Amino acid sequence: MGNDNLKGKSAIDFFPDLVPEIPTENESDLTIPAPQPPDTGWLYSEVPEADKQKKADSLTALVGIGADHDRELIESTLKKMGYIIDVAFSSAHAIDKIQSFLYNLIICSEEPIFKETHKNICELPPGKRRLIYYVIVGPNVNTLHNLEALALSANLVINDRDLPYLTSILTKGLQDYDSLFRPFLEALAAHNSSF
User: CATH number for the domain including 170?
Assistant: First the structure.
């Protein structure tokens, strides 16, 4: 019954202030410029030579977690997974490490103490950022929630309560990331090597 008054109406009828008025006098004179293609130059940016110092066969991780218990749990889990670990105790410390070394994995707390770290990671050159698997841990995120991760410019989010399952969560997240992005990264590597 209530749906009868919706028939034949569009979103413009319900939200007219969201749609700009388009002049209707000489519609043939109305030209809307086509959008410009996106700048794809960033796709081909190289990782600086200083960042290539890591060994190809070693996995490196930076852990920026304030709570001692969580940090110890994350460190021990990552060591069992074969990572060489660096620890940062503040944003300044983390940013210094990120600027001087290329990590495979960065796990950072959503605590305010690491706010500048998040900002720095989001501002990394795309050639470097796409090589880092970035994980945010905290009480306000939902584990493996892809939309939350995307909104936070991260690859993965993990709720504190799920840290005892870190091995399984990271394995799943990394497998998904690898299956989704490996063809893209291989194509970029092939493109860069052809120059």
Answer: 3.40.50.2300
Helix (H) or strand (E) holding 151: helix 146-151
Distance CA(136)–CA(66), nearest Å, equals 13
Encode 59-89: b = buried (16+ Cβ within 10 Å), e = exposed: ebbbbbbeeeebbebbbebbeeeebebbebe
Instruction: Judge whether 108 and 136 are in contact, CB under 8 Å.
Output: yes
Q: Assess if residue 7 is contained within a domain.
A: no
Can you give the pLDDT of all 195 residues of the chain as single tens digits? 455 666 666 666 666 665 556 555 555 555 666 666 555 454 445 544 444 444 445 899 999 988 777 899 999 999 999 999 999 989 999 999 999 899 999 999 998 889 999 999 999 988 888 889 999 999 999 998 888 888 899 999 999 989 999 998 999 888 888 887 777 767 777 777 766
Specify the pairing of strand 105-109 against strand 83-87.
unpaired
Identify which of 45, 187, 55, 64 has the alpha carbon closest to the alpha carbon of residue 117.
Answer: 64
The reply to whether the predicted model has a pTM over 0.70 is: no
